[in-house]
Amino acid sequence: MLNAERLDAKAFLAAAGIDGAAVDAPGARVPTEKISRLWEIAAERSGNPAIGLAQSQVVRPASFDVVGYTMMSCANLKAAFDRLVRYLRMLSDALTIHRTEERGRYRVSFDLRGGERPIPRQRMEFILVTVATFCRWVSGRDVNPVEVAISYIALLAILGRTAPPFAVRSRSTRR
């Protein structure tokens, strides 16, 4: 995604303390704190606070490795999410996804652990855009969520508030 934005991905990785060559190794793991630092650097150096929402079209089944191809073999989006929930640990130690059914609708929730550093909003935005884009790949059609709720703990710090995390809600007009 950084390269697609014409940014120097190697320099950003190095600045975040991530060995660019090691990232491409099979089974590579990068500490969650370093990934968060990478997103902070990307937002700072690009001058784009919405960088997590950029370049959603770069997501392909290969982005999810074998888990993506397993999802693509599913008959429907529900089954694909079940596979993602089941096999996500192959992709990330920091992210957990839950899928539940509520009143005939499905809720997908994300739990992203930041370790010792706050999670930049750009990181979570990228995950949401990536999952939405992949849903289009799996289902073959646009995905229109009824509701999106995001808690930005870091936003409270920016605003100088000490209240508990709040949710920003956006309701789709399409049903």
Give a quick set of tags describing it.
single chain, alpha+beta, two-stranded antiparallel ribbon, 175 residues
Could you describe the 3D structure shown?
This protein is α+β, with helices and mostly antiparallel strands and 175 residues long. The protein has one domain. The protein is 41% helix and 15% strand. The protein contains 7 helices and 4 strands; from the N terminus they run H-H-H-H-H-E-E-H-E-H-E. A two-stranded antiparallel sheet has the order 1-2. It has a two-stranded antiparallel sheet with strand order 3-4. The chain starts with 8 loop residues before the first helix and ends with a strand.
- Quaternary: single chain
Major pleated sheet: 2 strands, antiparallel
Treating each run of at least 4 consecutive H or I residues as one helix, how many helices? 7
Order of helices and strands: HHHHHEEHEHE
What separation lies between the terminal Cα atoms? 31 Å
Strand content: 5-15%
Quick check: average pLDDT?
A: 79
Helix content: 40-55%
User: What is the total number of structural domains?
Assistant: 1
Which blocks of ≥5 consecutive residues have pLDDT under 50?
154-175
Question: Largest beta sheet: what is the strand line-up?
Answer: 1-2
Return Rg in Å.
Answer: 17 Å
